[in-house]
Amino acid sequence: MTKPSSPVHQSAERIRLDLTLRSFIERIEAAQELKRISGANWDLEIGAITEVSASLSNSKALLFDDINGYPSGFRVITNAVGSQKRSALALGMDPLLCGVRLVRAFKKKLENLKRIPPMKVSTGPVLENIDSGSKVDVLKFPSPKWHREDGGRYIGTMDAVILKDPETGWVNIGTYRTQVHDKATLGVYISPGRHGKMILEKYWAQGKRAPIAVACGIDPILFAVASTPSLAYSGVSEYEIAGGLAEGPVEVIDNELTNLPLPAGSELVFLGESPSPNEESRIEGPFAEWTGYYASGSREEMIVKVKHVFYRKDPIITGFPHFKPFYSTLVFPSLFKAASIWDTIEKAGVPEVQGVWLLESGYHNFIVVSIRQKYAGHSRQAAHAVLGSRSGGYHGRFIVIVDDDVDPSNVNDVLWAIGTRCDPATSFEVANSCWSSTIDPRIPPDEKRKRNFTSSRGIIDACKPFHWIKEFPPASTISEQDFEETMQKWGKIILSNE
What is the pLDDT of residues 265-286, one digit of tens each? Predict the structure, then answer.
Protein backbone atom coordinates (compact mmCIF):
# COMPACT_ATOMS: atom_id res chain seq x y z
CA MET A 1 0.00 0.00 0.00
CA THR A 2 1.34 3.44 -0.92
CA LYS A 3 1.84 6.17 1.59
CA PRO A 4 -0.95 8.78 1.78
CA SER A 5 1.33 11.45 0.32
CA SER A 6 1.98 9.45 -2.86
CA PRO A 7 0.37 10.49 -6.18
CA VAL A 8 -1.96 7.47 -6.17
CA HIS A 9 -3.80 5.98 -3.19
CA GLN A 10 -4.46 2.24 -3.47
CA SER A 11 -6.93 -0.08 -1.80
CA ALA A 12 -8.07 -3.64 -2.34
CA GLU A 13 -11.08 -2.35 -4.26
CA ARG A 14 -9.73 0.42 -6.48
CA ILE A 15 -6.98 2.85 -7.33
CA ARG A 16 -7.81 6.39 -6.26
CA LEU A 17 -6.16 9.43 -7.75
CA ASP A 18 -5.01 12.12 -5.36
CA LEU A 19 -6.66 15.24 -6.76
CA THR A 20 -3.79 17.68 -6.33
CA LEU A 21 -1.73 19.38 -9.01
CA ARG A 22 1.53 18.34 -7.36
CA SER A 23 0.62 14.66 -7.50
CA PHE A 24 -0.09 15.01 -11.22
CA ILE A 25 3.25 16.78 -11.74
CA GLU A 26 5.01 13.88 -10.00
CA ARG A 27 3.35 11.42 -12.41
CA ILE A 28 4.26 13.27 -15.59
CA GLU A 29 7.80 13.98 -14.42
CA ALA A 30 8.29 10.28 -13.71
CA ALA A 31 7.12 9.63 -17.28
CA GLN A 32 9.65 12.18 -18.62
CA GLU A 33 6.83 14.43 -19.78
CA LEU A 34 7.93 17.58 -17.91
CA LYS A 35 10.49 20.30 -18.59
CA ARG A 36 11.55 22.86 -15.98
CA ILE A 37 12.35 26.37 -17.17
CA SER A 38 14.03 29.00 -14.99
CA GLY A 39 14.20 32.79 -15.41
CA ALA A 40 11.43 33.53 -17.93
CA ASN A 41 9.51 36.82 -17.83
CA TRP A 42 5.80 36.89 -17.05
CA ASP A 43 5.42 39.63 -19.68
CA LEU A 44 4.95 37.73 -23.00
CA GLU A 45 7.92 35.39 -22.55
CA ILE A 46 6.10 32.57 -20.73
CA GLY A 47 3.39 32.73 -23.37
CA ALA A 48 5.88 32.77 -26.25
CA ILE A 49 7.87 29.81 -24.88
CA THR A 50 4.65 27.87 -24.37
CA GLU A 51 3.41 28.59 -27.90
CA VAL A 52 6.68 27.61 -29.56
CA SER A 53 6.90 24.43 -27.48
CA ALA A 54 3.26 23.49 -28.07
CA SER A 55 3.76 23.70 -31.83
CA LEU A 56 6.27 20.85 -31.70
CA SER A 57 5.12 17.29 -32.32
CA ASN A 58 6.55 15.98 -29.05
CA SER A 59 5.89 18.92 -26.74
CA LYS A 60 6.28 18.58 -22.97
CA ALA A 61 4.55 20.15 -20.00
CA LEU A 62 6.48 23.27 -18.92
CA LEU A 63 7.02 24.27 -15.28
CA PHE A 64 8.30 27.86 -14.99
CA ASP A 65 10.20 28.92 -11.86
CA ASP A 66 12.37 31.89 -10.85
CA ILE A 67 10.03 34.10 -12.87
CA ASN A 68 11.38 37.62 -13.28
CA GLY A 69 10.23 39.84 -10.40
CA TYR A 70 8.84 37.01 -8.26
CA PRO A 71 10.21 34.81 -5.48
CA SER A 72 11.65 31.44 -6.36
CA GLY A 73 8.94 28.84 -5.92
CA PHE A 74 6.10 30.99 -7.23
CA ARG A 75 5.53 28.95 -10.38
CA VAL A 76 3.41 28.57 -13.52
CA ILE A 77 2.75 25.30 -15.36
CA THR A 78 1.62 25.27 -18.99
CA ASN A 79 0.79 22.60 -21.58
CA ALA A 80 0.14 20.27 -18.64
CA VAL A 81 -2.23 17.96 -20.52
CA GLY A 82 -1.07 18.75 -24.05
CA SER A 83 -0.50 15.17 -25.16
CA GLN A 84 -2.51 11.98 -25.23
CA LYS A 85 0.01 10.40 -22.86
CA ARG A 86 -0.30 13.18 -20.26
CA SER A 87 -4.08 13.15 -20.67
CA ALA A 88 -4.15 9.44 -19.90
CA LEU A 89 -1.86 9.94 -16.90
CA ALA A 90 -4.12 12.72 -15.62
CA LEU A 91 -7.03 10.29 -15.66
CA GLY A 92 -5.16 7.35 -14.15
CA MET A 93 -5.36 5.43 -17.46
CA ASP A 94 -2.87 3.46 -19.56
CA PRO A 95 -0.49 6.05 -21.09
CA LEU A 96 -0.05 3.84 -24.19
CA LEU A 97 -3.68 4.40 -25.20
CA CYS A 98 -4.12 6.87 -28.05
CA GLY A 99 -6.65 8.09 -30.59
CA VAL A 100 -10.09 6.50 -30.62
CA ARG A 101 -8.87 3.76 -28.29
CA LEU A 102 -8.21 6.40 -25.64
CA VAL A 103 -11.64 7.96 -26.21
CA ARG A 104 -13.30 4.53 -26.07
CA ALA A 105 -11.57 3.66 -22.79
CA PHE A 106 -12.50 7.03 -21.29
CA LYS A 107 -16.09 6.70 -22.52
CA LYS A 108 -16.29 3.36 -20.72
CA LYS A 109 -14.98 5.09 -17.59
CA LEU A 110 -17.76 7.66 -17.90
CA GLU A 111 -20.41 4.96 -18.46
CA ASN A 112 -19.39 3.25 -15.21
CA LEU A 113 -18.99 6.51 -13.33
CA LYS A 114 -20.52 6.71 -9.88
CA ARG A 115 -20.86 10.26 -8.63
CA ILE A 116 -19.13 10.75 -5.29
CA PRO A 117 -20.10 13.79 -3.17
CA PRO A 118 -17.26 15.99 -1.91
CA MET A 119 -15.93 15.48 1.60
CA LYS A 120 -15.83 18.45 3.95
CA VAL A 121 -12.53 18.91 5.79
CA SER A 122 -11.49 21.52 8.31
CA THR A 123 -8.16 22.30 6.71
CA GLY A 124 -5.98 21.54 3.70
CA PRO A 125 -2.88 22.64 1.76
CA VAL A 126 -4.62 25.70 0.31
CA LEU A 127 -4.94 27.18 3.81
CA GLU A 128 -1.18 27.23 4.40
CA ASN A 129 -1.33 30.99 3.75
CA ILE A 130 -4.29 33.37 4.11
CA ASP A 131 -4.27 37.04 3.06
CA SER A 132 -7.36 39.06 3.91
CA GLY A 133 -8.57 42.64 3.73
CA SER A 134 -5.74 45.13 3.16
CA LYS A 135 -3.24 42.29 2.78
CA VAL A 136 -4.92 41.08 -0.42
CA ASP A 137 -2.59 41.54 -3.39
CA VAL A 138 -3.39 39.62 -6.54
CA LEU A 139 -0.25 41.06 -8.14
CA LYS A 140 2.03 39.14 -5.76
CA PHE A 141 1.44 36.09 -7.96
CA PRO A 142 3.09 35.75 -11.41
CA SER A 143 0.06 36.04 -13.66
CA PRO A 144 1.33 36.15 -17.26
CA LYS A 145 0.50 38.46 -20.07
CA TRP A 146 0.20 35.63 -22.57
CA HIS A 147 -0.05 37.39 -25.95
CA ARG A 148 1.11 40.77 -27.23
CA GLU A 149 -2.39 41.98 -28.13
CA ASP A 150 -4.06 40.84 -24.87
CA GLY A 151 -5.75 43.56 -22.88
CA GLY A 152 -3.92 42.64 -19.69
CA ARG A 153 -2.63 39.85 -17.50
CA TYR A 154 -4.71 36.68 -17.13
CA ILE A 155 -4.21 34.57 -14.02
CA GLY A 156 -7.18 32.31 -14.75
CA THR A 157 -6.94 30.29 -17.97
CA MET A 158 -6.98 26.77 -16.48
CA ASP A 159 -9.08 27.65 -13.47
CA ALA A 160 -12.22 26.64 -11.59
CA VAL A 161 -14.77 29.38 -10.87
CA ILE A 162 -17.01 28.27 -8.00
CA LEU A 163 -20.56 29.56 -7.44
CA LYS A 164 -23.59 28.47 -5.43
CA ASP A 165 -27.16 28.86 -6.68
CA PRO A 166 -28.97 31.18 -4.19
CA GLU A 167 -32.27 29.32 -4.67
CA THR A 168 -31.25 25.64 -4.67
CA GLY A 169 -27.80 25.58 -3.06
CA TRP A 170 -26.39 23.83 -6.14
CA VAL A 171 -22.61 24.27 -6.33
CA ASN A 172 -21.47 24.88 -9.90
CA ILE A 173 -17.89 24.98 -11.16
CA GLY A 174 -16.89 26.41 -14.54
CA THR A 175 -13.71 27.42 -16.33
CA TYR A 176 -13.85 31.09 -17.34
CA ARG A 177 -10.99 33.39 -18.21
CA THR A 178 -9.93 35.64 -15.36
CA GLN A 179 -8.12 38.95 -15.85
CA VAL A 180 -6.13 40.86 -13.24
CA HIS A 181 -7.33 44.48 -12.95
CA ASP A 182 -5.56 45.59 -9.77
CA LYS A 183 -4.45 44.34 -6.35
CA ALA A 184 -7.96 43.45 -5.21
CA THR A 185 -10.00 43.25 -8.42
CA LEU A 186 -10.39 40.48 -10.99
CA GLY A 187 -12.46 40.36 -14.15
CA VAL A 188 -14.23 37.13 -15.13
CA TYR A 189 -15.73 36.66 -18.58
CA ILE A 190 -18.61 34.15 -18.88
CA SER A 191 -20.34 33.52 -22.22
CA PRO A 192 -24.16 33.79 -22.43
CA GLY A 193 -25.96 30.53 -21.71
CA ARG A 194 -23.37 29.18 -19.29
CA HIS A 195 -24.52 27.97 -15.88
CA GLY A 196 -22.21 30.39 -14.07
CA LYS A 197 -23.80 33.41 -15.75
CA MET A 198 -27.30 32.20 -14.88
CA ILE A 199 -26.38 31.81 -11.21
CA LEU A 200 -24.80 35.27 -11.06
CA GLU A 201 -27.87 36.84 -12.63
CA LYS A 202 -30.06 35.35 -9.88
CA TYR A 203 -28.05 37.20 -7.22
CA TRP A 204 -28.04 40.42 -9.22
CA ALA A 205 -31.81 40.22 -9.81
CA GLN A 206 -32.21 40.09 -6.00
CA GLY A 207 -29.99 43.15 -5.61
CA LYS A 208 -27.22 41.07 -4.02
CA ARG A 209 -23.52 40.63 -4.64
CA ALA A 210 -22.68 37.05 -5.62
CA PRO A 211 -20.18 35.07 -3.53
CA ILE A 212 -17.57 33.74 -5.96
CA ALA A 213 -14.26 31.89 -5.80
CA VAL A 214 -11.58 31.44 -8.47
CA ALA A 215 -9.16 28.54 -8.03
CA CYS A 216 -6.07 29.06 -10.20
CA GLY A 217 -3.90 26.04 -9.41
CA ILE A 218 -5.93 22.86 -9.84
CA ASP A 219 -5.64 19.19 -10.75
CA PRO A 220 -6.43 18.44 -14.43
CA ILE A 221 -9.51 16.39 -13.56
CA LEU A 222 -11.13 19.35 -11.79
CA PHE A 223 -10.23 21.53 -14.78
CA ALA A 224 -11.73 18.98 -17.16
CA VAL A 225 -15.10 18.76 -15.41
CA ALA A 226 -15.20 22.55 -14.99
CA SER A 227 -14.52 23.16 -18.68
CA THR A 228 -16.83 20.46 -20.11
CA PRO A 229 -20.44 21.60 -19.56
CA SER A 230 -21.98 18.31 -20.71
CA LEU A 231 -20.37 16.27 -17.90
CA ALA A 232 -22.42 17.86 -15.11
CA TYR A 233 -26.00 18.87 -15.72
CA SER A 234 -27.97 21.49 -13.84
CA GLY A 235 -28.29 20.43 -10.23
CA VAL A 236 -25.26 18.11 -10.34
CA SER A 237 -22.03 19.51 -8.94
CA GLU A 238 -18.78 19.09 -10.84
CA TYR A 239 -17.25 18.05 -7.52
CA GLU A 240 -19.32 14.85 -7.71
CA ILE A 241 -18.15 14.10 -11.25
CA ALA A 242 -14.51 14.78 -10.34
CA GLY A 243 -14.84 12.48 -7.33
CA GLY A 244 -16.25 9.76 -9.54
CA LEU A 245 -13.41 10.07 -12.04
CA ALA A 246 -10.83 9.97 -9.24
CA GLU A 247 -12.75 7.18 -7.46
CA GLY A 248 -12.63 9.09 -4.21
CA PRO A 249 -14.23 12.27 -2.85
CA VAL A 250 -12.84 15.71 -3.55
CA GLU A 251 -11.88 17.28 -0.24
CA VAL A 252 -13.42 20.72 0.20
CA ILE A 253 -13.19 23.39 2.88
CA ASP A 254 -16.55 25.00 3.62
CA ASN A 255 -16.82 27.26 6.66
CA GLU A 256 -17.78 30.80 7.68
CA LEU A 257 -14.56 32.20 6.21
CA THR A 258 -14.65 30.42 2.85
CA ASN A 259 -18.42 30.84 2.35
CA LEU A 260 -18.15 28.43 -0.59
CA PRO A 261 -16.78 24.86 -0.80
CA LEU A 262 -13.18 25.32 -1.94
CA PRO A 263 -10.93 22.49 -3.20
CA ALA A 264 -8.64 21.82 -0.24
CA GLY A 265 -5.80 20.57 -2.41
CA SER A 266 -5.70 23.51 -4.81
CA GLU A 267 -2.69 25.82 -5.03
CA LEU A 268 -4.33 29.24 -5.06
CA VAL A 269 -7.89 30.47 -4.52
CA PHE A 270 -9.29 34.00 -4.69
CA LEU A 271 -12.51 34.48 -2.75
CA GLY A 272 -14.73 37.51 -3.08
CA GLU A 273 -17.98 39.04 -4.27
CA SER A 274 -19.27 39.99 -7.68
CA PRO A 275 -21.51 43.06 -7.85
CA SER A 276 -23.99 43.50 -10.68
CA PRO A 277 -22.33 45.02 -13.77
CA ASN A 278 -24.87 47.82 -13.42
CA GLU A 279 -23.25 48.64 -10.08
CA GLU A 280 -19.60 48.23 -11.10
CA SER A 281 -17.76 46.83 -14.12
CA ARG A 282 -14.43 47.10 -15.94
CA ILE A 283 -13.21 46.75 -19.50
CA GLU A 284 -12.35 43.07 -20.05
CA GLY A 285 -10.18 41.82 -22.90
CA PRO A 286 -9.27 41.42 -25.59
CA PHE A 287 -7.88 37.94 -25.09
CA ALA A 288 -6.62 35.36 -27.61
CA GLU A 289 -9.44 32.81 -27.68
CA TRP A 290 -9.48 29.06 -28.38
CA THR A 291 -10.66 29.68 -31.93
CA GLY A 292 -7.29 31.30 -32.69
CA TYR A 293 -8.76 34.81 -32.97
CA TYR A 294 -9.58 37.91 -30.93
CA ALA A 295 -13.24 37.60 -31.86
CA SER A 296 -15.05 38.96 -28.80
CA GLY A 297 -12.92 42.08 -28.46
CA SER A 298 -13.21 44.08 -25.24
CA ARG A 299 -16.26 45.37 -23.40
CA GLU A 300 -17.55 46.24 -19.94
CA GLU A 301 -17.81 43.04 -17.93
CA MET A 302 -18.41 41.84 -14.38
CA ILE A 303 -15.69 42.02 -11.74
CA VAL A 304 -14.75 40.19 -8.56
CA LYS A 305 -13.82 42.20 -5.47
CA VAL A 306 -11.30 39.90 -3.77
CA LYS A 307 -11.68 39.65 0.02
CA HIS A 308 -9.42 36.68 0.80
CA VAL A 309 -6.55 34.86 -0.90
CA PHE A 310 -5.74 31.28 0.11
CA TYR A 311 -2.54 29.73 -1.20
CA ARG A 312 0.01 27.02 -0.66
CA LYS A 313 3.63 27.65 0.13
CA ASP A 314 5.36 28.12 -3.26
CA PRO A 315 2.08 28.07 -5.23
CA ILE A 316 1.78 26.83 -8.81
CA ILE A 317 -0.58 28.60 -11.22
CA THR A 318 -2.14 26.40 -13.92
CA GLY A 319 -1.97 28.09 -17.32
CA PHE A 320 -3.90 27.12 -20.45
CA PRO A 321 -3.36 29.98 -22.91
CA HIS A 322 -4.98 29.77 -26.32
CA PHE A 323 -3.17 30.17 -29.60
CA LYS A 324 -3.89 29.46 -33.23
CA PRO A 325 -4.88 25.87 -32.38
CA PHE A 326 -2.17 23.28 -31.93
CA TYR A 327 -3.10 19.69 -31.27
CA SER A 328 -0.90 19.60 -28.19
CA THR A 329 -2.80 22.42 -26.49
CA LEU A 330 -6.27 20.99 -27.08
CA VAL A 331 -6.03 17.21 -26.73
CA PHE A 332 -7.29 16.97 -23.13
CA PRO A 333 -10.53 18.96 -23.52
CA SER A 334 -11.06 17.28 -26.91
CA LEU A 335 -10.94 13.89 -25.19
CA PHE A 336 -13.73 14.89 -22.81
CA LYS A 337 -15.86 16.44 -25.55
CA ALA A 338 -15.44 13.44 -27.85
CA ALA A 339 -16.43 10.96 -25.14
CA SER A 340 -19.41 13.11 -24.15
CA ILE A 341 -20.65 13.42 -27.75
CA TRP A 342 -20.21 9.68 -28.31
CA ASP A 343 -22.24 8.88 -25.20
CA THR A 344 -25.00 11.35 -26.13
CA ILE A 345 -25.53 10.12 -29.68
CA GLU A 346 -25.66 6.50 -28.52
CA LYS A 347 -28.27 7.44 -25.91
CA ALA A 348 -30.23 9.14 -28.70
CA GLY A 349 -30.58 5.71 -30.30
CA VAL A 350 -27.92 5.87 -33.00
CA PRO A 351 -26.44 2.35 -33.27
CA GLU A 352 -23.00 1.10 -34.23
CA VAL A 353 -20.97 4.20 -33.38
CA GLN A 354 -17.32 3.18 -33.71
CA GLY A 355 -15.55 6.34 -32.64
CA VAL A 356 -15.72 10.12 -32.16
CA TRP A 357 -12.86 12.60 -32.50
CA LEU A 358 -12.30 16.35 -32.75
CA LEU A 359 -9.76 17.02 -35.48
CA GLU A 360 -6.53 18.52 -34.21
CA SER A 361 -6.19 21.98 -35.73
CA GLY A 362 -9.93 22.40 -36.23
CA TYR A 363 -10.62 21.49 -32.59
CA HIS A 364 -14.35 21.84 -31.90
CA ASN A 365 -14.97 22.99 -35.47
CA PHE A 366 -14.50 19.51 -36.99
CA ILE A 367 -16.32 16.70 -35.18
CA VAL A 368 -15.74 13.33 -36.83
CA VAL A 369 -17.96 10.33 -36.11
CA SER A 370 -17.27 6.83 -37.38
CA ILE A 371 -20.22 4.45 -37.79
CA ARG A 372 -20.85 0.94 -39.11
CA GLN A 373 -23.75 1.64 -41.48
CA LYS A 374 -26.84 -0.51 -40.94
CA TYR A 375 -29.59 1.27 -42.92
CA ALA A 376 -30.23 4.10 -45.34
CA GLY A 377 -30.12 7.46 -43.54
CA HIS A 378 -27.95 6.11 -40.71
CA SER A 379 -25.13 8.58 -41.40
CA ARG A 380 -27.40 11.65 -41.42
CA GLN A 381 -29.12 10.46 -38.25
CA ALA A 382 -25.72 10.36 -36.54
CA ALA A 383 -24.89 13.87 -37.76
CA HIS A 384 -28.12 15.38 -36.43
CA ALA A 385 -27.68 13.57 -33.12
CA VAL A 386 -24.33 15.37 -32.75
CA LEU A 387 -26.11 18.69 -33.28
CA GLY A 388 -28.56 17.73 -30.53
CA SER A 389 -25.83 17.10 -27.97
CA ARG A 390 -24.66 19.86 -25.62
CA SER A 391 -20.98 19.52 -26.50
CA GLY A 392 -21.52 18.93 -30.21
CA GLY A 393 -24.21 21.55 -30.66
CA TYR A 394 -22.22 24.45 -29.23
CA HIS A 395 -19.97 26.65 -31.36
CA GLY A 396 -18.80 24.52 -34.24
CA ARG A 397 -18.59 24.39 -38.02
CA PHE A 398 -18.51 20.89 -39.49
CA ILE A 399 -19.70 17.42 -38.59
CA VAL A 400 -18.04 14.70 -40.64
CA ILE A 401 -19.50 11.18 -40.73
CA VAL A 402 -17.21 8.37 -41.89
CA ASP A 403 -17.41 4.58 -42.20
CA ASP A 404 -15.97 2.17 -39.66
CA ASP A 405 -12.88 1.52 -41.79
CA VAL A 406 -11.83 5.17 -41.27
CA ASP A 407 -9.98 6.23 -38.13
CA PRO A 408 -11.63 9.51 -37.06
CA SER A 409 -8.52 10.48 -35.08
CA ASN A 410 -6.33 10.29 -38.20
CA VAL A 411 -6.72 13.50 -40.22
CA ASN A 412 -5.22 11.85 -43.31
CA ASP A 413 -7.77 9.04 -43.08
CA VAL A 414 -10.62 11.54 -42.74
CA LEU A 415 -9.47 13.66 -45.68
CA TRP A 416 -9.06 10.48 -47.75
CA ALA A 417 -12.69 9.56 -47.01
CA ILE A 418 -13.93 13.07 -47.84
CA GLY A 419 -11.91 13.09 -51.07
CA THR A 420 -13.02 9.65 -52.27
CA ARG A 421 -16.52 9.06 -50.84
CA CYS A 422 -18.16 12.49 -51.02
CA ASP A 423 -20.25 13.67 -53.94
CA PRO A 424 -20.42 17.48 -53.60
CA ALA A 425 -23.95 17.56 -55.03
CA THR A 426 -25.44 15.11 -52.51
CA SER A 427 -23.03 14.67 -49.57
CA PHE A 428 -23.24 18.15 -48.03
CA GLU A 429 -25.99 19.58 -45.81
CA VAL A 430 -26.38 22.85 -43.91
CA ALA A 431 -28.18 23.38 -40.59
CA ASN A 432 -29.03 27.01 -39.80
CA SER A 433 -29.49 29.07 -36.61
CA CYS A 434 -27.34 26.81 -34.41
CA TRP A 435 -26.05 27.73 -30.94
CA SER A 436 -22.76 29.63 -31.03
CA SER A 437 -20.98 32.24 -28.88
CA THR A 438 -19.57 35.74 -28.70
CA ILE A 439 -16.09 34.46 -29.60
CA ASP A 440 -17.24 33.02 -32.95
CA PRO A 441 -15.14 34.97 -35.51
CA ARG A 442 -17.64 34.27 -38.33
CA ILE A 443 -20.70 35.95 -36.81
CA PRO A 444 -21.15 39.32 -38.59
CA PRO A 445 -20.62 42.42 -36.39
CA ASP A 446 -24.22 43.59 -36.92
CA GLU A 447 -25.57 40.26 -35.65
CA LYS A 448 -23.28 40.39 -32.60
CA ARG A 449 -24.58 43.86 -31.78
CA LYS A 450 -28.10 42.40 -31.89
CA ARG A 451 -26.85 39.59 -29.60
CA ASN A 452 -27.69 37.03 -32.26
CA PHE A 453 -25.01 34.49 -31.39
CA THR A 454 -26.06 31.80 -33.87
CA SER A 455 -24.37 30.31 -36.91
CA SER A 456 -24.77 27.48 -39.41
CA ARG A 457 -23.27 23.98 -39.29
CA GLY A 458 -22.05 21.99 -42.26
CA ILE A 459 -22.67 18.24 -42.39
CA ILE A 460 -20.23 16.28 -44.54
CA ASP A 461 -21.39 12.75 -45.26
CA ALA A 462 -18.15 10.96 -46.13
CA CYS A 463 -19.65 7.48 -45.90
CA LYS A 464 -20.03 5.05 -48.77
CA PRO A 465 -23.52 5.40 -50.32
CA PHE A 466 -25.57 2.84 -48.42
CA HIS A 467 -27.80 1.78 -51.32
CA TRP A 468 -24.76 0.45 -53.23
CA ILE A 469 -22.30 -0.01 -50.38
CA LYS A 470 -21.61 -3.65 -51.30
CA GLU A 471 -20.50 -2.58 -54.76
CA PHE A 472 -18.20 0.19 -53.51
CA PRO A 473 -14.55 -0.62 -54.35
CA PRO A 474 -12.75 -2.26 -51.39
CA ALA A 475 -10.07 -0.26 -49.60
CA SER A 476 -6.49 -1.46 -49.64
CA THR A 477 -5.46 -1.13 -45.99
CA ILE A 478 -4.53 -3.23 -42.97
CA SER A 479 -7.46 -4.88 -41.17
CA GLU A 480 -8.50 -3.89 -37.68
CA GLN A 481 -7.53 -7.33 -36.37
CA ASP A 482 -4.07 -7.16 -37.95
CA PHE A 483 -3.63 -3.64 -36.59
CA GLU A 484 -4.52 -4.73 -33.06
CA GLU A 485 -2.22 -7.76 -33.18
CA THR A 486 0.66 -5.63 -34.47
CA MET A 487 0.13 -3.04 -31.73
CA GLN A 488 0.01 -5.71 -29.03
CA LYS A 489 3.31 -7.21 -30.21
CA TRP A 490 5.20 -4.10 -31.30
CA GLY A 491 3.31 -1.15 -29.77
CA LYS A 492 5.86 -0.25 -27.08
CA ILE A 493 8.67 -0.18 -29.61
CA ILE A 494 6.64 1.74 -32.23
CA LEU A 495 5.55 4.40 -29.73
CA SER A 496 8.90 4.70 -27.94
CA ASN A 497 10.82 7.98 -28.22
CA GLU A 498 14.15 6.16 -28.13
Answer: 999 999 999 999 999 999 999 9
195-205 residue pLDDT tens: 999 999 999 99
pLDDT tens-digit profile of 287-303? 988 777 888 889 999 99
What whole-number distance in Å separates Cα of residue 159 and Cα of residue 164? 17
What SS3 state is found at 303?
Answer: strand
CA–CA dist 454, 456 (Å, integer): 7
Residue type, 474: P
From the list 346, 343, 340, 434, the residue with the least C-alpha distance to 395 is: 434
Please give the DSSP secondary-structure letter assigned to residue 210: E
Distance between CA atoms of residues 229 and 236, nearest Å? 11
- Reported pTM: 0.80
The domains of the chain, with CATH numbers, are 8-319 (2.30.110.10), 348-495 (3.40.1670.10)
Give the pLDDT confidence of 216-242 residue by residue, as tens digits: 999 999 999 998 876 766 688 999 999
The beta strand positions in 200-339, using DSSP E, are 210-215, 251-253, 262-263, 268-274, 282-284, 299-301, 303-311, 316-319
